[in-house]
């Protein structure tokens, strides 16, 4: 989807829901720097962050230029130019099983001021974002969440998990193969362009990754405020394959006290090939004068334990639902991914907000490709039919949750014997879904 997300008309339903409370719903112009600065201040306050410094506000302006940014304003407030609620959305691809991506809408920056909570502002904004997503032609909306109790009511469900991976340096003896290429130290600014190219390829390999990361690489590489304390700690290495092609990078820092060994910490290890992934892990776990390595938002299915003599050197903590997915258009969404096995399945989907409700037939051929059609009321039901809500559809969509698990939780009904087993095998993904960033 390459269009200006600001070209979509302002959602009239959200506008009138907020107007009933005397509030104004405004689409911001990213060139209106005063309004944008106030919005960025409000977003920081809403997330309980410190006030942004000038460099962070400037970075916020660049990020906002790639998004559709809304604020809610209270003309009666003491500071009417500061929004009492914020939200941002943008079109991006979401990688799905089989190596393709589906048109999606990312939702972010959902905050409501502590003075204005529990009067329906978040609901108006969230329903507004679903309308924006629909108008943008997105088959799916998605977000990452700080609290897991808020977004289910709008049809979102956890679809890809993430975890903190900790490696005990003393126990980490590498037994995996040495990669054929080389690891090089590269200054973060020099890596910026290559990092973006590697990221694009890495994202395509993993269901659950999204392909537009406004502003995130600059943050990861410490380029937003290069003179800041945190940024000066960032070290970056790049893996080049045996032909000299850059295939991966990691941005890490070593935290330590004087005279004590440190801990390697990283949020970004991005690999476009398996060799690159192994080489970068090996580089990290073989550091001297460190007690361990800690990587955040890693896959729950890392190959790392299989590369070390002692798999117990690796522990997973903070395993969380990370990516939440909301299906808007089942025909487009289901048609975009590949499936694990051929078969025919009818899905009867209930969606309280009506975007995805209806009966759909999924016919998967030998190569995992699907034909999906909406059934009208007169169509005869297939033997293999599942009844599920839009949340359950979002949960199984990327292959991270088995339909039979949701049936055991009484969240999917399968009237025909065998249909659950078929659904499990059809929805299985070739790679465990994973999202490696917050957005
Ligand atoms: C979470 C937040 C956005 C909710 O805003 P709000 O305007 O008070 O929410 P609404 O009044 O529109 O409530 C919508 C629904 O969410 C529920 N809800 C609101 N906040 C909730 C919370 N923290 N936990 C669980 N449910 C919540 C309401 O009960 C209501 O439910 P209903 O529609 O079923 O009756 C707001 O509290 C906030 O800004 N929190 C801090 C920032 C944050 O956590 N943002 C989320 C980032 S992922």
TrEMBL record:
Domain N-acetyltransferase intervals: 23-180
Subunit structure: Homohexamer; trimer of dimers.
A Pfam family matched in the record: Acetyltransf_9
Classification of source organism: Bacteria, Bacillati, Actinomycetota, Actinomycetes, Micrococcales
GO MF term (any one): aminoglycoside N-acetyltransferase activity
Record's protein name: UPF0256 protein
Binding site for acetyl-CoA: 110-112, 118-123, 146-147
PANTHER family in alphabetical order: N-ACETYLTRANSFERASE EIS (PTHR37817:SF1)
């Amino acid at each position: 989807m390459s269009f200006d997300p600001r070209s979509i008309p302002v959602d009239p339903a959200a506008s009138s829901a907020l107007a009933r409370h005397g509030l104004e719903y405004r689409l911001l112009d990213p060139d209106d720097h005063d309004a944008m600065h106030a919005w960025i201040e409000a977003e920081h306050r809403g997330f309980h962050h410190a006030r942004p410094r000038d460099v962070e506000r400037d970075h916020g302006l660049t990020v906002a230029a790639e998004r559709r940014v809304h604020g809610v304003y209270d003309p009666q407030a003491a500071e009417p130019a500061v929004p009492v609620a914020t939200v941002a959305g943008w079109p991006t691809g979401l990688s799905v099983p089989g190596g393709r991506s589906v048109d999606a809408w990312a939702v972010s920056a959902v905050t409501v001021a502590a003075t204005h909570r529990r009067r329906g502002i978040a609901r108006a904004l969230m329903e507004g974002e679903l309308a924006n997503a629909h108008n943008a032609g997105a088959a799916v909306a998605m977000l990452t969440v700080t609290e897991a109790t808020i977004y289910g009511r709008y049809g979102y469900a956890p679809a890809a998990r993430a975890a903190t991976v900790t490696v005990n340096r003393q126990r980490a003896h590498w037994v995996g193969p040495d990669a054929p290429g080389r690891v090089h130290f590269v200054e973060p600014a020099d890596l910026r362009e290559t990092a973006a190219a590697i990221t694009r390829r890495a994202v395509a390999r993993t269901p659950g990754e999204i392909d537009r990361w406004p502003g995130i690489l600059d943050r990861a590489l410490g380029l937003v405020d290069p003179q800041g304390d945190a940024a000066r700690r960032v070290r970056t290495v790049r893996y080049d394959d045996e032909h000299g092609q850059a295939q991966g990078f990691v941005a890490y820092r070593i935290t330590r006290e004087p005279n004590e060994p440190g801990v390697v910490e990283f949020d970004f290890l991005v690999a476009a090939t398996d060799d690159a992934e192994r080489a970068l892990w090996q580089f990290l776990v073989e550091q001297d004068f460190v007690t361990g390595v800690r990587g955040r938002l890693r896959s729950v299915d890392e190959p790392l334990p299989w590369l070390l003599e002692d798999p117990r050197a690796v522990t997973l903590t903070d395993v969380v639902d990370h990516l939440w997915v909301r299906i808007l258009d089942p025909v487009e969404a289901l048609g975009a991914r590949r499936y694990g096995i051929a078969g025919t399945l009818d899905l009867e989907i209930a969606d309280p907000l009506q975007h995805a409700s209806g009966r759909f037939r999924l016919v998967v051929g030998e190569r995992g490709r699907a034909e999906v059609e909406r059934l009208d009321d007169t169509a005869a039901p297939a033997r293999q039919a599942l009844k599920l809500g839009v949340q359950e559809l979002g949960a199984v969509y990327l292959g991270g949750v088995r339909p039979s698990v949701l049936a055991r939780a009484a969240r999917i009904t399968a009237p025909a014997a065998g249909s659950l087993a078929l659904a499990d095998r059809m929805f299985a993904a070739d790679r465990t879904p994973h999202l490696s960033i917050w957005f």
